[in-house]
Automatic annotation (TrEMBL):
UniProt GO cellular component terms: outer membrane-bounded periplasmic space; plasma membrane
Keyword GTP-binding: no
EC numbers on record: 2.4.99.28, 3.4.16.4
SUPFAM superfamilies, per the entry: beta-lactamase/transpeptidase-like, Lysozyme-like
Reaction it catalyzes: [GlcNAc-(1->4)-Mur2Ac(oyl-L-Ala-gamma-D-Glu-L-Lys-D-Ala-D-Ala)](n)-di-trans,octa-cis-undecaprenyl diphosphate + beta-D-GlcNAc-(1->4)-Mur2Ac(oyl-L-Ala-gamma-D-Glu-L-Lys-D-Ala-D-Ala)-di-trans,octa-cis-undecaprenyl diphosphate = [GlcNAc-(1->4)-Mur2Ac(oyl-L-Ala-gamma-D-Glu-L-Lys-D-Ala-D-Ala)](n+1)-di-trans,octa-cis-undecaprenyl diphosphate + di-trans,octa-cis-undecaprenyl diphosphate + H(+); Preferential cleavage: (Ac)2-L-Lys-D-Ala-|-D-Ala. Also transpeptidation of peptidyl-alanyl moieties that are N-acyl substituents of D-alanine
Protein name: Penicillin-binding protein 1A
Gene3D superfamilies assigned to the protein according to its UniProt record, in alphabetical order: Biosynthetic peptidoglycan transglycosylase-like (1.10.3810.10), DD-peptidase/beta-lactamase superfamily (3.40.710.10)
Glycosyl transferase family domain span: 57-232
InterPro entries hit by this protein: Beta-lactam/transpept-like (IPR012338), Glyco_trans_51 (IPR001264), Glycosyltr_51/Transpeptidase (IPR050396), Lysozyme-like_dom_sf (IPR023346), PBP_transglycosylase (IPR036950), PCB_OB (IPR031376), PCN-bd_Tpept (IPR001460)
Keyword Protease: yes
UniProtKB keywords: Antibiotic resistance, Carboxypeptidase, Cell inner membrane, Cell membrane, Cell shape, Cell wall biogenesis/degradation, Glycosyltransferase, Hydrolase, Membrane, Multifunctional enzyme, Peptidoglycan synthesis, Protease, Signal-anchor, Transferase, Transmembrane, Transmembrane helix
Similarity comment: family membership: In the N-terminal section; belongs to the glycosyltransferase 51 family.
Amino acid sequence: MLKLLVQRPWLGALVAAPLLALLLGAIVATFVWAQLPELDALTDYQPHRPLRVLSEDGQLIGEFGAERRRFVPLKDIPKPLQDALLAVEDSDFYKHSGIDFGGILRAFGHNLLHPTRLQGASTITQQLARNIYLSNRQTLWRKAQEALLAIKIENNLGKEQILEIYMNQIALGNKAYGFGAAAERYFGKPLDRLDVGEIAMLVGLPKDPNKLNPVLYPERATRRQHVVLGRLQAVGLISAEQARAAHDRPLDVRRPRRLAGVADHAAEQVRAEMVTRYGEEAYTRGLTVTTTLRYAEQAAAQEALRHALFELERRQPWRGPEATLNLPDGGDELDDALDAAFEAHPDLGELKTAVLLEATKTAAGLVLADGQEITLKGAALRSLQNARRGAVLRVLESGKGNWALSQVPQAEGAVVTLDPASGAIRALVGGFDFARNQFNSATQAYRQPGSAFKPFVYSALIDQGAWAGTRVSDQPFEQGDWAPRNYDGQYEEALTLRQALAKSKNMVTIRLVQAIGPQRARAWAARFGFDEAKQPLNLTLALGTGSVTPLQMAQGYAAFANAGQLPTAWLVDHVQDAQGIVLWKADPPKPRAAVSARNAFMTSQLLAAVTREGTGARASAMLGRWDLYGKTGTTNDAVDAWFCGFQATRAGAVWIGYPQPKSLGERESGGGLALPVWAATMAVALRGQPSAPLAPPGEGLVQRDGDWFYEEFAGDLAIARIGLPAVDPAASAASASDKP
């Protein structure tokens, strides 16, 4: 042999080359192996889990974090799903030791024959190594690291552990990581309820979760699903009949909801609190925050507010398209242009984005973000006369398949309800849509309360000896250049407190503040949690010209329902870690005394008259119950519209107005705009609750002829008249003696 190599040196080179290659490969492998990371991330697998926010009754209302993941142990992952995944991604998973050399040879042969349809040969273990430790760059160095890491992983972890981590770690599009999260986001169901077609769609996603996303690219996803169904049939996991049925059945893929949905502003408030408390780890630790919100009540509040804003917008002139695109005639260019339009102008809940494709004298054809084509007819066409192809519009569905032209409401609003006894917030809606405006109007918007502020003025006078029958002048009032007027333009000689509050008479309330003094009236209002510095120190205080938030108004009215005790609103009940261990539990703040129980009761009786025969009577009529107390509020020129009120077990405030204050409209009012929102929310909050009128306190009051008095002011000691001429006792006696 040696003689042969000497005589033929080229043969030596031929023999030495593979040996040198093997030696060089061994050296490189040794060097790469030494550089491989430790496997702590796998041996002690702690997946990133998002921050989840729940309602009190366990409904998901918000989720935060780059990765949406539901960790599911392998024993709870259905065997058909496991088998389908292995059949598609790694059929020899339980046979190889990290690298599938047979698969490499098969892929090599396929790629030689089909250079335009290349196949890969990465095992599940290699994919896991790349996902956890490496990048997706196509380099020899990365491939070498990936292969050796796969071997190292197989040497340290069992097959079941590798598969469990893979099925919970892999990215599957739409921020879903792992099959549990993907099943929830795409189909709204757990893994054990997936059918054959849904399993096939999911196991096809690891190939390219971005380009095969069934929400964004349904046709591609369907084609991939059909390929997977063929593979599952070929290996005997499903029958031909099952494959055909799954092939023919359309997938019901749901579009993922935006951040939160029914409680977006509340969820954001919780997120900020959790980041303050736990730092950036709040997004990855798998924390679950349970709030005090009642899901049905929250959903009712959001739906009612959105409906009110849509109705307000319906009374406004149409402002035209949000944008107008230059649309290609068809093909991929048209699809790309439409995708860009829907991304720039996303749906806002039930308010759908539509792009105008064509319009005639009798109909207009539009396309929605999900590809559905709709037709507008009738009155909407008159508005679309000047719109051209490519116009970006908004539409609302009214009944099955009936669509109406609409537009994004410009006004905002807020709803807050809470438990008067504990202060637990049951519903908090901070605006029309969080995607449009993250400003939380429920907690941050300081607006003029208008007539909704009047009960606090009445409460101050009651504490000085007034009662429901105290008569007050309703005649026009002027002070310098200030000449306020009653909302209805009507003036009477005198009204009782009950009548005046029920009719929301401004002149009466001005004279009450005049009698008390602005300083004392403002200080009294501060007892209910209002910022004293934000209230004017003059007679305009009577008209609610200060600044309050909807949350403050809800708390203030709750004090009347809670025997004069002012609750402090709170939202987070408890926080759990990923293992369900409670990390923090709320200690609800104790209410503090705002006014006496007797003052709260007597003021409430005036508010009961408002909801029975006054400006808020619509509330009792809508709910069909007589244990409601509340007050409308409409500021000058209808800039702010309010309704605030309570029942024994719930207090709430609703505000509607433009972010930059301006008139809502000449005929708009708190009773017309805000009251229906309050009533719709309370209808759900009080469902099944028996009538519970407030009971008088056990001491401090006396009742005469059906009216209540402070016991020390009963009879002639009570305030009888304000702003009216004094009664001459002799004349009164003479008048009485003249009566038959």
